[in-house]
Each structure stands twice: as C-alpha cells, then as structure tokens.
Amino acid sequence: MPGLSRNAQVLRYLLDVAPGVGHTLLAKFAYLADLAAREYVGSPISEMRYRYDNHGPFDAVAFYSARDELLEGGFITEEDADIGGYAGFELRPTDRVVTFEFADWEAEILSFVGRKFASWTARELCDRKVYASLPMKNAVPGRLLDMDQVNREPEELEFNLERLLAGERSADEQRARPLADVLHELRARHIG
Known about the structure:
- The chain is mainly alpha-helical.
- The protein is 49% helix and 11% strand.
- The protein folds into 2 domains: 6-155, no CATH class; 159-192, no CATH class.
- The strands form 2 sheets. The protein has a two-stranded antiparallel ribbon with strand order 1-2.
- Helix 1 crosses helix 3 (60-72) and helix 2 packs across helix 4 (104-117).
- It is globular.
C-alpha cells in the first residue's frame, strides 16, 4: 500500500502532537508550520497553497482531501464536539502506524507548532498569530497568499537548522565529546 500524501502526513503529525483539535486549529497549525519552515529554511513542509478564505489562510481542497485520506485510511477519527458554543469536530489520531517522510527540521517545526498552540482557541490563534503574519497583512480576500515573501535563503540565517538538530541528536545519543576533551587533544597535538 502506498504511503500517505505529504499533506496527510502533515495533518496526522500535527494531530499526534495536539490530539483533539478541530478543523480550524488544524488548518491554522499547518499554515503556521509552513510559515515557520519558509522563514527558517526557505521552503514549506506541506504542499498546500493558501488562499485568503472567509476565516483566514486556507487551502480547502488540499486540507479536506488530506483529512478524508486520513479518515478513510483509519488514521484519524472525527467526532462531533461543542467548540466554544459552536458545533464542530474533534480530530484524533488512531493507533494505526504512520511512516512519516520528514526531515528532522520538518518534524521539529511541526512538533513546535503543535505543542505551542495546542491550548489556544481558534480565535486567539487567528488574532494573535495568523492574521498578524506577513502574508496575511498583505493578503487580498479570495486570492492566493504570497507566501514566498517570507522565504529565507539558508545562507541568510545565522544558523543552519538541520545542522543544529543533527548536533542535538548526536549529543542525545552520546556521540558528542565534551569541549574540555577536544581542547586537551588540540593542545596536545599543537603544543607538545
């Protein structure tokens, strides 16, 4: 069986981090993850093309296709819920195993977004983060957002996110050496 589409993987990963969110929050999480990825690496994580919709940035076709793919495949459940006095849905991951095809930096950004904003309401998230983002400030209702305006070239950054995460992984796996040991070795080579 072929793996999940890129967009379905993004939604499922976000639901693994923040289970029980509704459509609005999940869609905004994907937007914020793509925004952060463009800002730090220069390219998005998902394949969504955001349009200034009635409730902010949204790619209805891509979002609902990915959601349906997850529902039909048994990767998530969708339950009716009361969300702030309104009828809505809670989306939750199932125990079905997913093989994610993300680089370390992509998984880290998705995890960060899910953890950071899981407790926020949709209104709070939209007012404080989504509508304050540069693509939304310059957006025209009904039109595609100019997401490229936030893209950074990797050499513009003061750090390389992939290398930073690889270094953290090496330290976690105890493959790193203490700085004092490295300095002693360098001194021994060059002084004595």
